[in-house]
Amino acid sequence: MSTTTRAAVVESGGAPFTLSDVVLDDPAPHEALVRLVAAGVCHTDLGVASGGLPFPLPGVLGHEGAGVVEAVGSAVTGVVPGDHVVLSFTSCGDCRNCQGGHPAYCATWLPLNLLGGRRADGTSTISRDGEDLGGHFFGQSSFAERALVDERSLVKVDPDVPLASIAPLGCGVQTGVGAVWNVLKPETGSTIVVLGAGAVGLSAVMAAALSPATTIIAVDRVAERLELAKELGATHTVDASQAALGDAIAVITGGQGADGIVETTGNTTVLRQGVDALAARGTLVVVGAPPFGSEVALDVNGLLGGKRVVGLTLGDVETQSFIPALVKLVKEGRLPLDRLIGTYPFADIDQAVRDMKAGKTIKPVLTF
Prior knowledge:
- This protein is α/β, with parallel strands linked by helices.
- Helix content is 26%, strand content 26%.
- The chain has eleven helices and 18 strands.
- Strands 3, 5, 6, 9, 10, 17 and 18 form a seven-stranded mixed sheet that branches.
- Helix 8 links the parallel strand 14 and strand 15.
- The longest helix is centred in the middle third of the chain and has 13 residues, at 172-184.
């Protein structure tokens, strides 16, 4: 039977989130009904809500959900009712990248997660007063008390770990950690620079602190975030409002430059400065997403020293193994994600958004 639930609906681009009763479709064979316990708020949610991406509105967003399975479709085998789950992105499971362990680069990733608003077969998962809404966001649309979730978005997790403490693992945290572990793969004694000390950047700092890198440099313009970065494992910090990035990195590294850089700001000027600050054979990972169509000029000769610039989606992780490993680190206190989180009742979603935009809260998590 269909399910009526309360959801935060964005009526049009730039409109606030408003709570409204919506109807969830019956679970398809490869879907589960999940009761949400918590959901992180991500800048991607805000970008879509602003109208910056062609997602169909009115619609229900949210893609860092965590909750308890209530019902499963006839073909679901990975979870059963009562299981605790973290919700992440979905994928087709059949294309070359999915089969090769890189589902974040699924051939149908954009329509399935970010732009389509519907299942792969074109059917809707959410309606209101008989009218279809945009849904199936990252296979979940978790800004709601209950969500109809694609099976490939579900990750079963340890029930002893509070769900509000791990909801952000589904997107922002796995992105920052994956940038370091899956792409940079620091060697012993290497230097890692993280540009931007938001949720993704600080996750990268924590990941670098768990690696063989011995110099970890956090760069931001907010003194409080730089102080937090130090507490989370940064060995050095750079206030970008006070010092030129290239000069600061040169001083810290004795002129060698950075072996690895994670760029989270989405600022093309910062990206260019980061590429220039790389050491020979260094790698810069592009995580921050500027507006579509943004371009950056690079010094071609400067790349000939073996520098690499690599784009990244969602940490290039295989969620079924990666997220449970992060949950274990959170449980053991080795990934202190709680230092980033501020919790808000679901009804206060607009306050959470305002605090995130104002920089008051690094990672808002809604609780239900």
